[in-house]
Amino acid sequence: MKKEIYWLIGTVILVLALHLFHFGWAGFEPETQFDLRIFDTHLAMSSLYFLWPFAVACFFVVYLVKVIALGFSSGPANLILMITSIFLLLFTTRGGLIMGGVLEGDSLLNFASAMVLVQLVLLVLLAYTAFRTGNLKKYGW
Hints:
Distance between the termini: 15 Å
Mean pLDDT: 83
Structural class: mainly alpha
Number of domains: 1
Radius of gyration: 18 Å
Strand order of the largest sheet: 1-2
Largest sheet: 2 strands, antiparallel
Keywords: Membrane, Transmembrane, Transmembrane helix
Strand content: 5-15%
């Protein structure tokens, strides 16, 4: 369990360092904004709104690599991977609803198909991780 705390702290430091590298010190202030261009749409949003989905994606990647390397044998790592998978499912669902008003025609169909595919992969990974976690005897789960 002590190693898992180090992994959590290390991942948080990684997220904060990458956010700092991308936005600078001003990126941690609520009034700092960045521009996002999606086709003809120009969105301006606070850089702190970007931090939460970015942190979840970083945690997902780090713990996916860790869980696969350990062969799904670490209960706490599996649990963190499942939690981040659920958050990514929520983000892709929400993102699909938001982009529904921006995209039209074939672009919307391609985007919706990609989101459904991502959600399907995340659900399969979530189910498999839950199955492997349920079979662990080491932690009594």
